[in-house]
Design brief:
Blueprint lengths: L2 E10 L2 E11 L4 E5 L6 H9 L6 E6 L2 E2 L10 E4 L11 H10 L9 H14 L15 H14 L4 E5 L7 H18 L2 E6 L2 H7 L2 E6 L2 E6 L1 H6 L4 H6 L4 E8 L2 E3 L16 E7 L4 E5 L6 E7 L3 E7 L5 E7 L12 E5 L3 E4 L14
Parallel strand pairs: 3-8, 3-9, 6-7, 7-8
Antiparallel strand pairs: 1-2, 1-4, 4-5, 9-10, 11-12, 11-13, 13-19, 14-18, 15-16, 16-17
The structure holds adenosine-5'-diphosphate and magnesium ion.
Adenosine-5'-diphosphate binds next to α1.
């Protein structure tokens, strides 16, 4: 099902939470909605689900005006961060729930329901859990069951709101890969909400970056990473270092900076800012550089350095410890970023406030 959202706005009291969202989700696509907490992601999902209504705008799904349809007519599969499975029902009954509560005329036969649940248990790799109750499951297993329940009704659209948000990093990585496989088999048009850029990029066909109720950028992981559309997107990609530079002919210049590895940008000449990630900066010895090493810590895998200039500005640099050059406190080093995003002073500013992770 193709989802087309146009000019969608929504306020709660005096606070505008969605500001003119235009978005098209292709049939069968897995789209990630990525943005800091409070950027309006859940509000947008709730409107698609029919749990809330916008003040303005359109929502058309497969040619049908969904704002004229009540929630129960939309056939949405919804998985939340904290999905309350029915504690008194086993896994099998939880997954079957959406089918068993249908009015008699629309309800599949018990044999059909059983077959659907069997297929889902296999697809989701939870056959062995069928008779268990939610209290006997791990967090990751519960979310698999929650997804089974959402898929059982053969949803026209699947909405996942930070479904792995409460789980450990390692389990999340497994579930991500698993969800991608499930999506490839079911082909449901899916919107996956997250504030984790790695999760969004690894999972999705396309990523929509949201900031403060607006879409900041839409693209593939590589497009957004290589060409962030604004300082806000760059910062959200982890470019937490904002280095004042002079831009000339699309090149960034500053004392102690060798930006020759960065492609030229199209920003206007004059003062600007170069946004950098601590893990994408190479360091070369340079006695003339204003940047001196003032901290040097090791995490075992990485060297964590702090460089300070005579004005007291500080930059964090993380290098893999193996293969790193010998670096001592007080060394003067030139910054050679391998990745960066440059914006001239008149460029769009960051959406405020920026919360880089929850
Ligand atoms: N029912 C509500 N009443 C008032 N404000 C709300 C309501 N729901 C959400 N908000 C506000 O709208 C903004 C966006 O919220 P939300 O859509 O939940 O963002 P996200 O999911 O990106 O974290 C937040 O500032 C939040 O406090
Ligand atoms: Mg949310």
């Amino acid at each position: 099902m193709t989802i087309t959202i146009t000019g969608m706005s929504k306020s709660f009291d005096a606070t505008q939470v969605l500001r003119g969202i235009d978005l098209k989700v292709e049939d069968g696509e897995l789209l990630a909605l990525l943005g800091p907490s409070g950027s309006g992601k859940t509000t947008l999902l709730r409107i698609i689900a029919g749990l809330d209504w916008p003040d303005a705008g359109q929502l058309v799904v497969a040619g049908q005006d969904w704002l004229a349809l009540p929630a129960q007519k939309r056939r949405i599969g919804f998985v939340f961060q904290q999905y309350a499975l029915f504690p008194h029902m086993n896994v099998r009954d939880n997954i079957a729930f959406g089918l068993t509560v249908r009015p008699r005329a629309e309800r599949p036969s018990q044999a059909e329901i059983d077959a659907t649940v069997d297929n889902l248990l296999t697809l989701l790799q939870i056959d062995h859990l069928a008779q268990r109750f939610p209290s006997q499951l791990s967090g990751g297993q519960r979310q698999r069951v929650a997804l089974g329940r959402a898929l059982a009704i053969q949803p026209s659209v699947l909405l996942l709101d930070e479904p792995f948000g409460a789980l450990d990093a390692a389990i999340r990585r497994d579930l991500r890969r698993w969800l991608r496989e499930v999506h490839e088999k079911t082909g449901s048009t899916t919107i996956f909400v997250t504030h984790d850029q790695e999760e969004a990029f690894e999972l999705a066909d396309r990523v929509v970056v949201m900031g403060d109720g607006e879409i900041s950028q839409i693209g593939t992981a590589d497009e957004i990473y290589d060409h962030p559309a604004s300082a806000f997107v760059a910062q959200f990609m982890g470019a937490v270092i904002a280095l004042p530079v002079t831009l000339r002919g699309g090149r960034a210049m500053a004392p102690g900076l060798d930006a020759s590895a960065l492609p030229a940008c199209t920003e206007a000449d004059g003062p600007g800012t170069l946004y950098l990630r601590p893990d994408s900066i190479m360091l070369d010895p340079d006695p003339a550089s204003p940047w001196a090493v003032t901290r040097r810590d090791s995490t075992g895998t990485d060297l964590r350095l702090v460089l300070t200039d005579p004005q007291g500005a500080q930059i964090d640099v993380d290098l893999p410890r193996r293969g790193a050059p010998t670096i001592a406190l007080g060394d003067r080093l030139r910054l050679r970023p391998l990745w960066g995003a440059m914006f001239s002073e008149g460029a769009p500013l960051a959406a405020d406030p920026i919360q880089l992770s929850a």
